[in-house]
Structures are given as C-alpha cells and as structure tokens.
Design a protein that fits this description.
homodimer, 676 residues, alpha+beta, Beta-galactosidase, Chain A, domain 5, TIM Barrel, 12-stranded antiparallel sheet, globular, Alpha-glucosidase (chains A, B), carbohydrate binding (chains A, B), GH-type_carb-bd (chains A, B)
Amino acid sequence: MRNGFSFIFFGCALALQASLAHAETASRYSLSSPDKQIQLQIDLRPDGLFYQVDYAGRAVVNSSRLGLKIKGQQALGEHLALLKQHEREYNQNWQQPWGEQQTINEHYRELRLELIETTASQRRLTLVLRAFNDGIGLRYEIPAQQNLTQFVIEDELTEFALAENSHTWWLPAYRNWGPEYQYLKSALSSVDVAFTPITLEARHYALAIHEAALVNYASMTLRLMSDNTKTLKVDLVPWPNGDKVRTAAPMQSPWRTIQIAPKAIDLLNSYLTLNLNEAPAPESLTADNSYIKPGKYMGIWWEMHIGEKDWSPGPKQGATTARAKEYIDFAAQHDISGVLIEGWNKGWEGEWWKRAPTFIFDEPVVGLDLEEVTRYARDKGVAIIGHHETAAGVTYYEQQMDAAFDYYEKLGIHSVKMGYVGTRIDGDQWHHGQYMVNHFQRVVDSAAQHKVMVNAHETVTDTGLRRTYPNLMTRECVRGMEYNGGSPDTGNLPDHTTIIPFTRGLSGPTDFTPGIFNFDYKKHRPHNRVPSTLANQLALYVVIYSPLQMVADLPENYAGHPAFQFIDHVPTDWKQSRALQGEVGEYLVVARQDKRSPDWYLGAITNQDGRQLKVKLDFLDPKARYEAQIYRDGKDADWETNPESYEIKRMNVTAKTTLELDLKPGGGTAIRFKRH
Amino acid sequence: MRNGFSFIFFGCALALQASLAHAETASRYSLSSPDKQIQLQIDLRPDGLFYQVDYAGRAVVNSSRLGLKIKGQQALGEHLALLKQHEREYNQNWQQPWGEQQTINEHYRELRLELIETTASQRRLTLVLRAFNDGIGLRYEIPAQQNLTQFVIEDELTEFALAENSHTWWLPAYRNWGPEYQYLKSALSSVDVAFTPITLEARHYALAIHEAALVNYASMTLRLMSDNTKTLKVDLVPWPNGDKVRTAAPMQSPWRTIQIAPKAIDLLNSYLTLNLNEAPAPESLTADNSYIKPGKYMGIWWEMHIGEKDWSPGPKQGATTARAKEYIDFAAQHDISGVLIEGWNKGWEGEWWKRAPTFIFDEPVVGLDLEEVTRYARDKGVAIIGHHETAAGVTYYEQQMDAAFDYYEKLGIHSVKMGYVGTRIDGDQWHHGQYMVNHFQRVVDSAAQHKVMVNAHETVTDTGLRRTYPNLMTRECVRGMEYNGGSPDTGNLPDHTTIIPFTRGLSGPTDFTPGIFNFDYKKHRPHNRVPSTLANQLALYVVIYSPLQMVADLPENYAGHPAFQFIDHVPTDWKQSRALQGEVGEYLVVARQDKRSPDWYLGAITNQDGRQLKVKLDFLDPKARYEAQIYRDGKDADWETNPESYEIKRMNVTAKTTLELDLKPGGGTAIRFKRH
C-alpha cells in the first residue's frame, strides 16, 4: 500500500467480531466505479466467496468463486465472516518518468474485506477490490496469523464466469514454453487454457482479463472450466511438483484485473494495469536514475535471423569489432542511441540453445574488442547495449549475474537485453512459474543496483511492474519480427500486428523490433517474407509502444533511404497517446504526442486487406498549424508484390482536418505532424 | 475399384523388376489434373516416399512424407522400388439418387504406383493418386503378401507440408469427445491437433484437407508437427492401447483429400469427397430403395432443449401419444414428411447420459402408444422417425440392434436418428476411432437390410460414404442449434453458421436443425438466445444442405405464421446447387434448384454485422420469368433486439436481374424463385 496522505476516506472502519450466526447467513457488499458504470458485488455465503461485475447495467461477469486452496488444508474461501470492512476513494494524477502517457489519472474506489473463518482453524483472508472507470482489480492478502505461516498455494480458485459467449483472442498456454504464437480467435466456449491478457469482444463491451503487480507468485493462465461453459478459472503456472506458489504470511497475490470498455479500441487507452502497481520505493526515487533513457537502438541481430551471419564464432560470426563500428557510425549519424551486439561473449559455439549454457558473461568473443567498441561508441555519443542470453539456464546465470552487471557497469553499459531461449528454465521449470518470476525480479533488482535498463525476451509476461521498477523497460513476450526472417519459414500473417496491440500490448511495452526496409533477403531465406509494406513498418513505431524501440534492419539497408527520416524523427517517449480507431485483426490507428516537442505522430496499419480510413485530427492543438509529413503506401504497394513502394507527401493541416488514408494490403501510413 | 469399362487408358502398365541399384536412386513420377492446373509430384527416394502439390504454378504442398508404420516392423515407405506403374484418365457423369446436385462429373487422372521394398522383408505397398480439377486424393493399398498378413498400423506417416502459413479454421481434436465446438481461426502455425475437414485460406487459393471413403480404418486428425512449422501430420484416432488400425492385407486406406480452389467459396462447389467414394454395390442398386426419401421432419425435441419438456418419463415427459399426434397433425397439413419422438422408448429415466445405457429399443415408454401413433401418422401420410440413443454404449446397443430395426420395420418406420451421447464409446473408445467406424458401418448395413434411413448424431465425421450407402442420409457432427437452447447457456455466436458450410459442411450433409421462429423461451432458459433473425433461420434451409432437414421449432410456434410458407415450399432434394458468394465467418449466399420443379431457392446469411449484398440471378433459366418470393429481415430486425422482424416481398425477376439484399445483424434473406 502506498502512503495514505492523499486518500479520501468515505467509508468507516467497522470492527465486527465475527459470530457464527452472522457468518452462516449470506451477506453482500457492493462497490462501484467512480462513474458508477461498473458495479461490483461480493457475496459472502457459507459455501464460499463470490463476486460479480455489471457494466452499464449489463451483467459482464456472473457470480464467480474466489478463494485459495492451501496445500494440506481446506479451501480458504468458505465459511468466512467479516471482521472488518473498509472503503475509500482515491483520485490522484501521477507522472510516468517515461512512457506512452506522461500523466496518468489514478481514480478508484476500494473495498477491503477482512475475513475470518468461522471454523476451528480461524484462518484470516483479506479481499481487496478496486473499481476504476475502466475496469476492476481484486487481490487476496493473507495477513500474518498463527494458523497460517509458511504454506503452499495448491490452487487459486478465482473464476471469471463470463456472462456472454463472445469472440475471444487468446494464446494457448502450456503448449510449448511461452506465448510466441499468433493469436487464436474463437468463441469463449472454444478456449482451452490461455495466457493473459485474454481479450473478449461482446456486442456491447470489450474485456481484457490479466493481472497486475506479479511479485513472488506464479503467472496466471485461464482455463475454461469445462467444455461448453463460459467460465474461465485461474490456473497458476506450477512448479515441477505441482505446487503453484510457495509463500508465507503476510503475503498478497497479484491483482486480478478486468479491463472493461465499450469497444476493443478503448482498451488501448486504459492504464488500469499500471494503476494497480505500486509507485517506486522512495529510495529508488532519490537514486540517480539518469541512466534510464528511452531510445531507439540498432543491433547485430537481424543479419543472423536472415542467415547472413551467425551467433557462433567463426567465418559467419556477426559480432566483430568492425561490424559493431559500422552500426555505431550509422547510429551516431541518426537519432539512434544504442547498439546491441548479439553473440558478443564467449559460449555461443554451435547449437547453444540445445545444451546446458556455456556463456561467459564477462569475456568477449574472439574477434570483438568490446573495450574498444564501447570507447568508440562513447566517443560518438552512442551507447552499447549488453546482452545476457541465458539459454534458460537461470542457476548458471545467477552465479555470474552480479559480476556480469559489474562488468557492464565498468564499461559504461547501462542497458541489457536478456534472453531465456529454451523449452524449460533450468530444465524443468516453466517460463511463467514462481521460480522464474522470482528470478526475473532478482535480475531487475541487480540491474538497478548496477544502473542498467532491462529489455527481456522469453521472460514472464508484463504486469505493469515498470511503474515500481523504472529500469524495467520493455520485453518481447510476443511472436516478433524475428519469425518473419528466421528459420523455419513460418512467418507472421499480415494481420498479426493488428491483433497484438489489442492483446499482448495491453500488458505493457512490446519489443517487436520493427523497421525492415529491405524485403529481399531471399539468398538465405527464399521462403520468408516480412508481411507488410515499408510504410506499415514505419507506422509500427507509433502503433506498437516500446520505450526501447529497435531499428531492426541493417545500416546499409537504411543508408540514404528517404523514408528513414521518419525513423530518425519518431520519438520513443511520449507526452500522451490516443488509440483512435481500430478493430482486432483488421486495422488500427494510433496517435501519440512527443514528450519533448509539440509534434504529434500517427501510425495506421491494416491487415491483408487494403482499406480507406478517415481520420479526424482533432487530437491536435486547435490553435496550432502543423505540417503533416506523410509516409504512405505507393499506389501499387502490396506486402507481397511490391512492399517497398511508398511515397512521402507534405501538407498543412489543423485540428479541423480530416485525413483520408489509403492503406494497401499489409500496408500502413506513418505521419509526423510538425507544429509550425 | 469400380469396373473399368469406361476407363480411358493413356498410360501403359510397366512391369519393372525392382533392382536395388534402381531403388537407391531417386525417381520422380508426375500426375496432373485434367485442366493441368494441379500438378502432383511423387518422389521415391531411399529415405522415403514423398509427394508435393502445385496449383496454378504455385507450390501448395511442399515435399511431404508418405508411409505407414506397422507395429513391430520398420516404417513402410522407405527403400522402395517401383514394381509397376499405371496411369489412366476417367471422365464420367454420375447421378445422385438424392442430393444437393443431381449430376456430378467425375473426371480425374490416376497414377498407381506398385512398390516393393528393396530390403529383405520385401513388403509391398501401392500408392494410388488421383488428380481432379478441384483437388487431389491419395490412398495406400497393401496387397495380399507373405510378409504382411494380419497387422496393426501404429502410425500413418502422411504429412501435409503446407507451403504457406495461412489463415486456418479448425476444431480441436481429443479435447473432449468430438467436434461440437465453435471453430477456431488462427494461423496454421498456431494449430495444435484438429479434426478434418480443416480449411485454409491463403491469398491465392483456399484448401480443405479431409478424407474420403473411411471404412475399417481410424478417422484422421491432423497434428502440427511441432510449434512454428507449417506441416500437419496425420494422427489417427487410436484404440485405447494406442493401436491405430487393426487390419489385414489386402486392405486400402481412406483417401487423403486436398480440395483446392481459388477462393474459399469455391470449395463449396466441389464434389471431390463424393467422387472419391465408390458407387453403390450392384446388389444395393437392384434392391427396393423406395424407402429412401429426402424430406423435412419435425420432432418432440426442441421443447426438451428449451426446458419445457424432458426426455425422462414423468410429469414433464415429452414423448406422449397426445403430443406426438399434435406434431403429426401439423406435419400432415404441411410439406413435412416425418415426425421424430425423442424419449419414445424405455430407459430415459433421470441422468441417462451419466450411466451405462439402460435403453430398451423395442418397448415404448409408458404414456406413448407407438403402435397407435404410427397408425395415426400413416393414416395422415406422415412417417414416424425412430430414435436409437445409445448413450455411447455400443456393445449394449449392438446386442439389440437387429431386433430394434426389426421392430421398426414391422411398425413401418423407415428412418432412424442415431445418438451417441457420452464422453467415450463403451467407456474407453474415442468416437472417431476404428472401433466406432466399424460399429457405425454395421449400423448402416443393418439399417439398409431393414429398409431404414440413417441420421446419426455424435458419430464419425462424414467422408462421403452416402454415395456407396444411399440410406446414410445425414449426420450432426457439428455444434448445432441445440446449443442455442440447451443448458449450459453457451449458445453459438452469430458467425457460427457462416463458418460451418466452409468447414464441417464440406464433409457432407449437416443435420443442423434450423427453423426457430419463437425467440422467446426465457421461462426456462433466460440467458439463452438463438443468435439469428427469423429470415436467417429460413435462409439456413438453403445454405446448409441436408436431405433430412429438421423443422425444429414447436408446431404452435409455426401455426398461422406467414413466414412458414417458405419452409413449406423449400425442398430437401436438389437438381443443382451453387455457392454464389461468401467469406468464411462473414457471409454466404447459396442458390439451389428444386429437383422436382423448375423453381430455384436462395439463402443468404450474415454474421453479427449487417451488410448489403448484390446478387446476380444469372443462375436462373435465361429464357424464363420468375416470381421472387422474398423473405427478408424487417427494417428494424436484429438478432438480439428484434429477431422476429421480417417482411415478405414479391417481385418479378429474370436471369438478368441483380437483387440487392439488405441483411441485418445476424440476419438473412430466403427467396423462392417460382417460375411463371
């Protein structure tokens, strides 16, 4: 809990001595969002604890079970009585140090129900509920108590008994190691078990179910209770022996969140997940955080994916001093702050992803003089980005972790890309279980101590912890650009990028790595394709939010290219963001205002279908005039036949202008609105 | 194989003595469709047998493995040499005794490759390939031979290495007992394991993979080889011990079929599956088949689903003499040839689907005088439709099966609805394994001997066997109308009916049971909805093909309703059918010509989105004039708020007319074109 100086108390704390007589009758507690559109009901019945959610007078979640199953004990959630009830309203703006939206309003009503069992064990459980105008959060707290000290959560009983069998976009959990799939669309009743966020679109509202503030707990997946139901039940990612969470009182669960909005597009303008995370610890705020800087980066990376280079040492080695300097030279001439060098260290020989890890985290590979490269970069005002690929060997990595960050700190490296390539962590742990959650927290903490920003791939899904840990910048956790270039040649479909902002993107920044300009890499990857046009690639810099945004193609593919000036201009830190229009899997238009100038940027993308869109520019300052620098698909552009066809057009616009965008198949439009 | 009198031989039989030297070099065989658009290549290499498919100059299936794994033996498909090669072309029209299309052209080129192992075991395998203009079929034959007599197929090695990662509509296999799901749409690379038909839509073509002539074999499911591949591999539904097929030489597998068309809509105009089934046995053709009659039927059925009546005996018992007579009276006044009475026999008490079956198949339940009912029906020119619900107890059922059909034959009942409700057949068998395939064949055979038409629910997926067994009329194998009324309230989404004709519908007739007129059954099912308008319900009689088409609502909901005249008029047996336009999950327009009149009928349906469609009537006889009797959504129709709003309009049209259809959300248009 944060300091309460800004709390507006409107409820009063009731200290009720629970009596059995009281407990065995049903009682109901209510909470509504500040705008009253969301109504939350809690029912305390002898057979359990239940909640339900209405939105705009319509049932959204029917009566749904809450509770925890403690290993070796009765379910915690039945035969409960109220000890104490506490309501409050909170309404404050807060500032993101960096982000897609500088000022965020955090406005909720909260209900705390401190409960005690009426049975002999008298275990205590607190349920905390918050209702925002854009959704709800609920969490369990287990206070310190005699009959519950160290314990194992065998199952979390939380259910989401959805009121409608609506269209659902989801990723299958447990099918392989993680969420690097293209999304499935089905009826809710055809879902099996899914990662969160899971996005549902009914006729009168859209929902996204996810979690916030995942700390020392297992990630949540959602399993359909049984066929032909509409009830999703929390299925925590287990330890190898089936334990879900190993913990001790006092503890609190992550928030279970339901974002609610009239349409799917509105979910993108919700900051519920961030609002349900804690502000940074005070000591973090007083520390020197000047190393934390959003920015664009390039890297020795795509050339491995398209088969021109290799991560391994040898004749095709990508990580060389000379090649790194080429990237640094290009970055220095452009607004690109960092250069990543994958394969920079020892241990990448051969099929490194198939064996126990052999990486040395403080010894550069032969052929790369990292000291010279960092010196060269520093002289040119470019930062080198470190890389800790663990090959999913967490124990092995942690033995070197602090020394590895030390090594980077000494070299002046303040940004690291993490990697956890492998089917299981340490051989038998899921990537999303408590083991990995706790490991990754140690990474973030150690990195902060060494003044390092973290960009993690193949890690736990984001739950908004960047609010608390501002060095936790971005992560992958998506089927990214690499699938378009890499082997096997099962690239993403053109609609993939029109789905992920509505789903994965709701969890937080996404290191999707856009920016491919050269669509002809057939020498080594004859059957692969980036399924978009060049203008679509530009638009992704606005559509997909990440504070560290890769400029993914090779410098020689950008050199002298007129369209590159959009990438040069586009910021990675924003004053405000607006998802303007879109439908999941169809198209999306997003506008964002630069944090350091009055300029706005707009990105519009479509799926495999070309389409015309009318966009009102009413987000612009009504008193100002702008030059719109428009990067759009050429008349004959088409992701398949002519992806590199684009044109640049300049025109004067105001907030009263309506632009007509003409997106070609797999196409897009990227616009810089430069204020006069 | 059928008699060869009509074969056009253009290849010549080559009797090659296989030699090791020949075998260990690669050899290639080719086959093209009559129009040359489809090219099939077979590669015989030391490491195996492979095929690939091109369509219109584009790879559709890359080199893909063929073969069988015999239990306790080496894979059969490697180290093979050619013994004999045989090519032919076949081009004949044939007539369906009933169906969606009276005359079907069967035109293919065939390649038979008789192969022998070059290893000591010298097992023989014949591969038969047929290329039609609308797709391909391939099957394995194992001729009688010394080293392979009785054997178990442990795995079928057939792969479909698809060339593109395209959008795929699929149903998960093995998740519960069968295919009663709403379809999932995903990238091919996100498929897990799917029932067939599986429908794929790439930019330049659409595909459906399925099988034809499934006899004494296991149903095929398709499993993605591993994550991020585009290769589906056959995964035969197993026996409880893991065996896939228990068989003996000589034997032949079902055909593995790939329908190929420019667009998904064109798949609906393909008869590949039927063309890969055998003509009826001569003795079947000379038998009296006059009992086989397509037609509409009503039944004591929907009132159970909406909770007004019950299958069980007692106060809510649906199956009573009086109620049956009400249905018969209504049917007799209309063009409805049959009346089904579910719960007609003994054994339906309580939760019959949860216990071992207790049905008695020749004793009516107390309260239903079946002899009186059949007499009453016969006097009125209506047929009673029998019902054999087995509760998935096949062994129990087969002990009574012949007697049960005898009983019906004596009563003059010539149509039976079969049911296999239960999670496993006989406790441990999948609904789609060889055990059930063989059982169901015995049902069809026994029914034919007793002059009974079969309509089966919860059975093996259709593979076109109705061509060979003309008493095998229709089946469910779909998430039908019952899900909209039944409990739990996870009804179908409005787009469901716009998906199933492109997927499930490709396998054969679908007993979806349309025709709901009363959308207010909230007394017992307050949360359920039929997600369509009334005009959409009418259109389903044309859009979804079934020779036995249910008129699913209660007679009192039809009585005096002006829109019922469309159901009265619409035929169930057609001279020809044309899928005119549509997109999977979006909309569909189908026209069919009555077999017994020059009239045409048209059905158009949409998903949750209203839309306007222009339909050219160029399928009509250009020399004729027609009255179009149009049943369309009312101006304010909407599946959710006003489903019963419709209007009837009459206008004169010719083949030159273009109609503009205005479909409301969840809506449709049904038209009878009555020739002047």
